UniProtKB/TrEMBL annotation:
Signal peptide: none annotated. The gene is Erich6. InterPro entries: FAM194_C (IPR029281). Residues 1-176 form the FAM194 C-terminal domain. This is ERIP6 protein. It comes from the Eukaryota. It comes from Hemiprocne comata.
């Protein structure tokens, strides 16, 4: 970045290349996107929630609340279940210097622009149909498991609230205390699972109600 902070890293992990985009911070910089040559990639909203998630079968685009905005299947994923929804071109800005353009499975570009200069990284990959045909069916999270996870997170929130009541009897004091970061992360993960799992709308509403009570 113009600040001197590291923006994009490309490393080799075994037989795959990994491209990582970091936010513009001198230390403890959060990861804003990860692209793997194996076909798996994830982009994150500024607050950390998943924005775009892709694999060798297709991908999905989520809003900041974790709700699915769109979903698509790559043209060569002939064995993927459900309707074959084509990809509409996507362009997002991870920050004021780094953007991501998705035009196809092998046409995914990370663009870096600063001080009148531009660099582009092609992070897309092409998977042969024969390889897709060998994929095992995607694992699905059972309804009972999802409800148990939601209840567990809710219980943790209640314990944290109880601990706050014991340490700070005054409501005004308790309201100033921020919830633990791990609880926020676990809550966001449960809400993300509700979006990405193949479950009924009724169950999705029940899980969200448990977590958000």
């Amino acid at each position: 970045y113009p600040s001197g902070n590291l923006a994009i890293i490309v490393v080799r992990e075994k037989n795959h290349l990994v491209c990582i985009v970091q936010e513009d911070k001198p230390s403890k910089a959060e990861i804003q996107a990860v692209f793997m040559s194996s076909g798996r990639s994830t982009c994150y909203h500024p607050h950390g929630a998943v924005w775009i998630n892709m694999n060798i079968q297709g991908g999905q685009y989520l809003d900041q609340a974790g709700s699915r905005v769109r979903r698509w299947i790559w043209p060569n994923s002939v064995t993927s279940p459900g309707p074959h929804v084509p990809l509409s071109p996507i362009f997002i800005s991870l920050n004021q210097h780094v953007g991501v353009r998705i035009l196809g499975q092998d046409k995914i570009t990370v663009s870096f622009l600063a001080m009148g200069q531009q660099a582009k990284f092609n992070v897309g990959t092409k998977v042969q149909v024969s390889e897709v045909g060998q994929l095992p069916p995607p694992a699905r999270l059972g309804e009972d498991e999802l409800l148990l996870l939601a209840c567990r997170v809710r219980i943790l929130w209640l314990f944290d609230r109880l601990r706050g009541c014991l340490n700070f009897p005054s409501n005004e004091q308790r309201d100033k205390i921020k919830p633990p970061a791990y609880l926020i992360r676990q809550t966001l993960k449960i809400l993300q699972l509700c979006t990405t799992s193949d479950i009924s709308n009724e169950l999705r509403s029940r899980v969200r109600a448990i977590v958000n009570t």
